[in-house]
Every structure is written in C-alpha cells, then in structure tokens.
Amino acid sequence: MDPSTTDGGAEEKLIKSPLGCVQLLLQAGGSRSAEVSSPNECHKPPKVILKHGVELEEEQEELAEHQPLEQEDLNFERWKRRPIPKRTLHQKIADLKTYLWNAETNEFMGRSGKSWSLILLFYAALYAFLAAMFGGCMFCLMWSISPYHPTFNDRVMPPGLTMAPHLEGHDIAFNASDRKSWKKYTRSIDEFLRSYNDAAQDRKNIRCAHDSYFMQDHLEDSSERIACQFKRSWLGECSGLQDPYYGYSHGRPCILLRMNRILGYLPGQGKPVNVTCGVKKGPQEAIGDIQFFPKNIFDLNYYPYYGKLRHVNYSSPVVAVRFAGVQQDAHIHVQCKLNGKGIINDSPTDRYLGSVTFTLEVGAAERVGKQTGRRSRSSRAGLKQTGNQCGSSADQS
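Below the sequence we write its predicted structure tokens.
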C-alpha cells in the first residue's frame, strides 16, 4: 500500500501478512507503522496500538461483531412474509368470476381453449387405451376358459349338507297349539318344495334307474343333459300333500336335507351316501322315533351334476326327516350327518361340511292350552274384581 499522511504529517504504512492480518503502529511524533501479526492472532479483529503500548478502545471490534448481525437482520426483513391485506366479499366474488371466465384473455378457469382441448384429448386417449386393454384382457380370458366346466381343478371338495326350514340360525322352537309359532317353518318348506311338484317333474324330467350313476359324458359340452325326476309325493308325510303343516301342528315336525351341488362329483365311490340323525348333546331318548322319506340315502342316479348351463332342469335329491316321538318341553341339540366314502362330517371349522346341527324344542299342546285357560280365567276374575271395586266406589260417592 502506498504511504499516506496522517493529520500530524506522519507517514502511514500498512504491511499485510500472508494471512491478511495487519496491525497499525503509531511511531513517535504521531507517525504510525504496520506490524504483521502472528497466525494465531489473525482470527482476532484488527487493533490499532500505540507504539508506547497503549491500546485504543475496542470500538472497531464491537462494530466488526455487530456488522454481520445487522446484515442478517436486513436479509430476514427482506424475505419476511408480508401480511396480505383483507379483501372484501365483493372483491372475492369478482376474482372468482374472473377466474371462471376472463374476458380479456378469453380463458376459462385459467386456461385457454387450446389448452383445454389438449387436456381433454390427452385424457380421452388415455382412457380409451385403458378400456381397450381391459377389453382385450377380458376377451382373452373368456376365450380361454370353458363356461361348462372349470379349466383348472386341483381337487373336488366333499359335499356339505343344508336343511329346510332355513331361517336365521338353526333353532326350531314352537308350540303345536300356537299357529303363529310354527307358520314360518311351514312357509319355508313350501318354498323349498315348489320346484318338486309332481306335474313339473313329469313335464321336464325322466324317471331313471336306481343304484347307478347317470353318466352323460359322451355328449358334447354344449349339449343339454337329461335330469332325473324327484317328485314331491315321494316324501310321504313330509311332502305337504297329506299334511299341509308338515307335522308341526301335531308336535311331530319334519325337516328336509339336501347335499350341495358339486360339478362332476360322484358321491360314495359307487355306493349311496346315507343320512343319520341323533342327539349331539344329551340323552338319545329325547329325540324319540325318527322316520326318513323316501329313504335315508341319496340315490346314485342323480349324479354326476353337469352344471346349470347343461343340467337346466336338474333337481337335487332330498331326504325328509320326521321326528315322530320328540320329547316335549326339552331343548335338544340334533345333528344330521352324511356317511359314506370320501365324506367328511366332523370338521371343527365348517359346521355345514357333511353335517348340519340345530336345536329342536317342541312345546306341549295340552299344557299350553291349560296355561292359556288359566290365564283367561285369571284375567276374567281380575276384570270382575275391578268392576266390583268400581261399583262400590260409585255407591260411596
């Protein structure tokens, strides 16, 4: 640096160190000289020192320390979010109208007509491509599978067992003398047997030979299969033809059992599957005599089943069970199950696999009638006593 002159006329000379630190020394007579600081002292702010060792006040240090903070404050104020002035409702409505349609730029919702056209064209092409891809996949899938039988089948599940009447839960509880208590059961059985009417079976199906499978595999896949008859009249006292109430009005109820339809299933491996019913919990005497109609077996001539597209008029065989000697006023747990080769009837997880369990409780008709008579007599006595009290109170008044 070129030498300069101070106010006293002395020359001033600055000498910079390699680290850029400079110290100013005042020489005698008011002149100054510069000295190079050590590297450890380069981090400290510069000081002006008199030659005689008297330090000046550290005003320059304070200024050097506060100068960066003041600069940061200025930067913060520059980027600080300024409050947005509140807009009136009229201004907001005007902004909304301008956003929906800007007459100056001819824009709708911030976009021109060309921009909207390109967007709509893009999405139309996108969804058309997705629809075409989905349609192509569905076409290939439907073309590769058969509507008459499964394309892949690892194993055939054993059949389940269903019953009628089928209501919410499997609890059959009624009083023989109370029509309302068992009417829902008879109505459910009527609906179950509607397709088994004799006239419909004679018109649609044929009478088949017993104790042998009715195989029709030689026909084409699309050919309709012939179905065997199963007439309602074969169910005897549980058919609803002799007794329209299926024994419920006499305390001898009937239930109907049917196996699930399984495509191509041959039950029993050549021998008919039979049905047995008994008490699951409690004494066996509580259920009394059990009758089966027409037999306690599912005949082989109704199998195999070829599906609803080919076996259009197929009627599943039914086994009717009549509890003729059930103990009255007893809560009985009854289980009916299938028995035969390949049948599973003791699954702990599926209660309908090969068996069905329900509760049966039949109220005594005479007992219910006696209780009803006692209630009517007691109600009449109460009314008579009330009338006498009213008459006596009227006489006193």
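The chain has six helices and 14 strands.
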